[in-house]
Amino acid sequence: MKKIRVRFAPSPTGYLHVGSLRTVLYDYLFAKHNGGDFILRIEDTDKARYVEGSIENLVKILDFMGLEYSEGVFVDKDNKTFQKGDFGPYIQSERLDIYKKYIDELIKNDYAYYCFCSQERLGEMRKNQQLQKLAPMYDGKCRGLGKDEIQKLLDEKTPYVIRLKVSKEGFTEFDDLIYGKIKIENKTIDDQVLMKSDGFPTYHLASVVDDHLMEISHVTRAEEWLPSTPKHILLYKAFGWEIPQFAHFTLLLNPDKSKLSKRQGDVAVEDYLNKGYLKEALLNFVLLLGWNPKTEEEIFSLAEMIERFDLSGVNKTGAIFNTEKLDWLNGMYIRKMDVSELTKLCVPYLIEANLIEEKDTRYKIQDTNELIDFEYLKRVIALEQERMKKLSEIGESVKFIFSDKLDYEKELLIWKKMTAEDAKNNLQLIFDELSSFEENDFQSEKLQEVLNNLVEKNSLKRGEVLWPLRVALTGLKGSPGPFEVAEVLGKEKVLRRIKEGIVKI
Ligand code: GLU
After folding, report:
1. Residues 101 and 240 reside in one and the same domain
2. Are 451 and 390 in a shared domain?
3. 308 and 341 co-located in one domain
4. Bridge-partner residues for 176, per DSSP?
5. 330 domain residue, yes or no
6. Global pTM value
7. Residue 363 maps to which CATH number?
8. Which residues does 296 contact at the CB level (< 8 Å), separation at least 6?
9. Is 229 a pocket residue for ligand 1 (Cβ < 6 Å)?
């Protein structure tokens, strides 16, 4: 059997769209699941869309996401691109001679032709077609130009493009591995431009030539290329090449079913990473956007994805990009993380929120100038690990730990139907009880035991004691429990905050 070879072929336009992340994940999983080769090819033949530095950026993101490939374009330690593999170059702008050779072959064999039509003429033609409600399509004016005429126009340096000469009879058919049989009337296929007036190939020519020369067995890509595939098949036939298998992946949609695009908000993978989504959660999320594991399972590591992924689980209908699901998944991954690892990821957000700054091997709390170490930060992060959905929330949610003075309304200290007087008295009771505590006894279990006894001894309700305490310690409506918070704050701060609460009421 032929070796399975799959490529991801992005255009370097400056960022990686989350839809492309899904495409590259599926490409990768399909290749790995089948023990095939995975290749990164850069399709940079559209000079107008090229963005400086985007190849490096793209390679780094794929590397960060753990989507390894064995051939194609890589980046070294000095941020320089290099290429590896037997089928290079893997950057299309370095393959112009190759495309030229194949274009000449097509022209020679009458599968392609020179078109000298001006932009104005093509614009007029399109306008007329629109008026008549016809699909936009080249009208074939230059199909019949004679050799001499062509030579004359070439000698006069008239700008030209090269078009595919589609024989308008019959049908073009293929089996898409996701969509099944596709059959198109050839008369609906446009005489596609294969080479532009700047001498660069179009995507269509370059991708067919490269997929053939790079021995790609399965062309896996986004659904937006499905309508182009019949043209590609005609090209394979014109060259007399074996036609690869095709699999097209559905579009990602906004909740209103419109195409997920930059205009509606963030679509770049980088944006999601910056917002504090974990790469594992993002991969897991895009995996499930369009692939059905056929079980209730929802959490998949990359290794599990490789083991389980197959094209038969890929859906035919567009997948809604539902960020609530992403938040949920991210929370699941955060909870599963080792707290040291999680803390490392949270530190930049704490610094950005201006809560702490790095000081040699330790950290300085901005508000109080105290020095703390990584171990202490771990205890702070552990407080929120269960509740956190995004790393970027951490600054806001643990701000109370690092603040010198909490800012809250005194009414918040009062639980349900208690009076202000009750709240004050209860805080005083807690204060007296905890004052005699050794610093070492400031552990959540111990605190819990002592405060539960205090509740019983004074015939109070738990909320009448724990609510005012929790608010005095955090200044928040919602927070981790008072015992855990007290343990992290330590005796001195706890007593000070309780006192401040008492004074406030
Ligand atoms: N360069 C195309 C893109 O960025 C690739 C399409 C394909 O995989 O054939 O969408």
Report:
1. yes
2. no
3. no
4. 180, 246
5. no
6. 0.90
7. 1.10.8.70
8. none
9. no
Give the Cα separation of 242 and 486 in Å (integer): 70
CATH number for the domain spanning 496: value is: 1.10.10.350
Percent share of the chain, pLDDT over 70: 99
Which atom of ligand 1 has the smallest separation from the CA of 7? 8
Give the pLDDT band of residue 263 (cuts 50, 70, 90): low
Domain count for the chain: 4
Q: Say what the pLDDT of residue 14 is.
A: 82
For a mutational test of ligand 1's pocket, the pick from 8, 47, 58, 207, i.e. the residue with the most ligand atoms closer than 8 A to its C-beta, is 207
pLDDT for residue 408 is more than 70? yes
Position 258 scores a pLDDT of 83
Residue-number span of the structural domain to which 239 is assigned? 95-249
Question: Could you say which of 234, 249, 264 is where a domain stops?
Answer: 249
CB 109 within 8 A of CB 238: yes
Asked whether the beta carbons of 260 and 321 are under 8 A apart, the reply is yes
What pLDDT band is residue 438 in, cutting at 50, 70 and 90? confident
Residues 123 and 186 in one domain: yes
Q: Is 262 an annotated catalytic residue? A: yes
Q: pLDDT digit string (tens) for 81-126?
A: 999 999 999 999 999 999 999 999 999 999 999 999 999 999 999 9
Q: What is the pLDDT of residues 236-248, one digit of tens each?
A: 999 999 999 999 9
CA 90 to centroid of ligand 1, rounded, Å: 14
Looking from the CA of residue 224, the nearest atom of ligand 1 is 10
Neighbours of 123 (CB within 10 A): 11
For residues 229 and 132, membership in a common domain is answered with yes
pLDDT computed for residue 13 by the predictor: 84
**Same domain? 49 vs 131:** no
Q: What is the 3-state secondary structure (H, E, C) of 283-323?
A: HHHHHHCCECCCCCCCCCCHHHHHHHCCHHHECCCCEECCH
